[in-house]
Specification:
7-stranded antiparallel sheet, 2 helices, single chain, 7 strands, 156 residues
Length: 156
């Protein structure tokens, strides 16, 4: 099993400042349509809604098709549980820290079909996934900043 967790600061010098509500709104947008947020994803469609906070979506990520069950846990966590596809497990995006030092943490615990746990092949996959997810979290924060920047320009 591949287990990784990493947190990035939400607010950095020279970028639009995001509050907790803006980060949460961005995570909800990402859960419903990740294409503007995740560069390695080429398809994303919600396929079934069970409630306002639980739904399924199909995605194409790194050339593979997955079905994910999404759970929105306002105001701090979105959980993506892979229920179909060649890599199963759980991915979480969490807002952490005090308002003046927000962080966006991503964590995943994944099992790759046909790959032995603890093998060199699993480690190679883990390394490439970690790189992709770091890029996805950075892209997510950048997309949220652009949304905030656009909202500021509209209200000005």
């Amino acid at each position: 099993m591949i287990v990784v967790t990493h947190a990035l600061p939400v607010n950095v010098e020279g970028e639009p400042k995001l509050d907790r509500a803006a980060v949460w709104a961005g995570l909800v947008l990402k859960a419903n349509n990740a294409l503007p947020f995740v560069p390695s994803m080429t398809y994303c469609e919600v396929t079934e809604r069970y409630s306002d906070t639980i739904f399924d979506r199909d995605i194409d990520f790194r050339g593979d098709r997955f079905t994910e069950r999404i759970m929105l846990e306002e105001p701090h966590r979105v959980t993506f549980t892979r229920i179909a596809g060649p890599v199963l497990g759980t991915i979480a995006n969490e807002i952490e820290g005090p308002d003046d030092d927000l962080k966006l943490r991503f964590s995943f615990a994944l099992i790759v079909a046909g790959v032995e746990g603890g093998s060199d092949r699993e480690q190679e996959y883990a390394d490439s996934m970690t790189g992709d997810y770091l890029k996805a979290v950075a892209a997510t924060l950048n997309a949220m900043r652009r949304i905030a920047e656009g909202a500021s320009a509209v209200s000005a």
